[in-house]
Amino acid sequence: MGEEAIQSAIREIRARDVDGEPLWRVCCDIVRVLLLLRGAAWDTDLVNELRNIWARRGWREEKVGKLLGYLDGAAKTLQSKGILSAQRRKRSRLTGVGTVEGVLYSLKHQRPVMRGFADDRELLRLELSRM
């Protein structure tokens, strides 16, 4: 998939995010989290970061729970647009004993996605709050 197609897909999801539809909000927030984490995150880390972002916005747990219900659909939408890759893999446990299966989410084309979010004020705020 070419850079122009990625840019077009990014413009589409960002425009739809403005409409306030939860699916598109979650799509954009997934991309924001992956950009903050340099392009990849395990499913558990992605959910934790999304919860942190939504808590910073002052959203209550009830709303956060509803948004998490859109996570799979948002990930599939981003995959269908060629933005996201989701792979089931094994990773080591924190205890160091054995492995656990999880989903590794990663941006397929990080640079065009970064360009598409270069003027995103919310991403900038999140980056500054992490310093």
Question: Can you offer a commentary on this structure?
Answer:
It is built from seven helices and three strands, in the order H-H-E-H-H-H-E-E-H-H. A three-stranded antiparallel sheet has the order 1-3-2. It is globular. 60% of the residues lie in helices and 16% in strands. It has helices at 3-18, 22-36, 43-56, 61-68, 71-80, 110-116, 121-129; strands at residues 40-42, 84-92, 99-107. With 131 residues, it is of the alpha+beta class. The longest helix has 16 residues, at 3-18. The model has no long low-confidence stretch (mean pLDDT 93). It has one domain (3-129): Arc Repressor Mutant, subunit A (Orthogonal Bundle), CATH 1.10.10.
Q: Kindly identify the CATH topology.
A: Arc Repressor Mutant, subunit A
Tally of discrete structural domains:
1
Radius of gyration: 15 Å
Helical fraction equals 55-70%
Largest sheet: 3 strands, antiparallel
Compute the number of helices.
7
Strand order of the largest sheet: 1-3-2
CATH class: Mainly Alpha
Task: List how many beta strands DSSP finds.
Answer: 3
Fraction in beta strands: 15-25%
In the CATH hierarchy, what is the architecture at level 2?
Orthogonal Bundle
Summarize the helix and strand pattern as letters. Answer: HHEHHHEEHH
| pLDDT averaged over residues | 93
Shape field? globular
Key traits:
single chain; 3 strands; alpha+beta; 7 helices
Task: Write a brief structural summary.
Helices cover 60% and strands 16% of the residues.
